[in-house]
Amino acid sequence: MDKAIRKWANPFKTHGWKRFSKNKLALAGAALLLALTGMAVFAPFIVGNDPYLSLTGADGQIMKNLSPGDSGLLLGADSLGRDIFSRVVYAARVSLSVGLVAVGISAAVGIILGAVAGYFGKWADIIIMRVVDVVYCFPVMFLVIIIATILKPSIYNVMIVIGLCNWTGTARFVRGEILRVRELEYVQASVSLGAANGRVILQHILPNITAPIIVEATLQMARAILTEASLSYLGVGVQMPTASWGNMLMDANNIATLTLRPWQWVPPGVCILLAVLSINFIGDGLRDAFDARQKK
């Protein structure tokens, strides 16, 4: 009986992955995200120049603002003579890592608090949901900027700040799903048989809402990457000389570069666009594949 319940409750023992594989946009997004991830992981083997060192010519002068193709550089050099291609590739490590870790933090906090609020209800539900309401009163970006400004700007603080400011959506979502699932017969049967609350939540409720949680986390990763880029562009995110797509845009924020040297700001901007777009395609594909309303 318990084996049958677990099999039924597991959202991945469905035809969801088959439906996902038929979604061309989702597959294209997965391939693109895999390419960006591979670029980040194998960065030392892809680039030939140090992304943090200025390039110098035979006369010892720094080669500033080189156009793509000059001196064999694929995307040219920036105002400090650094290889833009190398910086874009290494920046993928930072931006994708921030998105992944921040989503991990927000998902962990949101799942725990949402599960407590949804399953136990009463005062736990009231307190947690009022905290969520208070946080919702502030624009997320405004709150993130304030906290990031107070703390010392660094990549680790950016991860923590983004994660701790974005858990409310996950908590509210998990609470709603648990309120629905806890009324199902197999959950009520487990409670009637005297199963501990922790076992009911971990073995019977959370496995049944794993798929929508993954969809929510996937979409949140795209928002986290955008948030990191925004913070870095404003100067309160990842700090130089560490390269991120956001602070590369900040570094090119002057009239001369914007109008005369687009190769310095177009590549990081395109990378942000492709990363966010691919993650959104994957999230939409997962939502369509595992949405219970679409299952026959």
SSE inventory with pairings:
Layout: H1 2-9, H2 16-21, H3 24-41, H4 43-46, H5 84-120, H6 122-136, H7 140-150, H8 155-165, H9 167-181, H10 185-192, H11 197-205, H12 210-234, H13 245-251, H14 255-260, H15 266-290
Helix pairs in contact: 3-5, 3-15, 5-6, 5-8, 5-9, 5-12, 5-15, 6-9, 7-8, 8-12, 10-11, 12-13, 12-15, 13-15
Question: Could you explain how this protein is built, in words?
Answer:
- The model is unreliable at 1-9 and 292-296 (pLDDT under 50).
- With 296 residues, the chain is an all-alpha fold.
- It has one domain: MetI-like (MetI-like fold, Orthogonal Bundle).
- It has helices at 2-9, 16-21, 24-41, 43-46, 84-120, 122-136, 140-150, 155-165, 167-181, 185-192, 197-205, 210-234, 245-251, 255-260, 266-290.
Task: Give a quick rundown of the structure.
This protein has 296 residues and is mainly alpha-helical. The chain has helices at residues 2-9, 16-21, 24-41, 43-46, 84-120, 122-136, 140-150, 155-165, 167-181, 185-192, 197-205, 210-234, 245-251, 255-260, 266-290.
Report the top-level CATH class.
Mainly Alpha
Rg computed from alpha carbons, rounded to a whole number of angstroms: 23 Å
N-to-C span: 23 Å
The shape, in one word, is elongated
Largest sheet: none
Strand percentage:
under 5%
Q: What is the count of DSSP helices, taking H or I runs of 4+ residues?
A: 15
Q: At the third CATH level, what is the topology name? A: MetI-like fold
Structural class: mainly alpha
Q: In terms of quaternary structure, what is this?
A: single chain
- Supply the number of structural domains: 1
Low-confidence stretches: 1-9, 292-296
Strand/helix succession: HHHHHHHHHHHHHHH
Task: Calculate the mean pLDDT score and round it.
Answer: 81
CATH superfamily: MetI-like
Count the E strands.
Answer: 0
Level-2 CATH architecture: Orthogonal Bundle
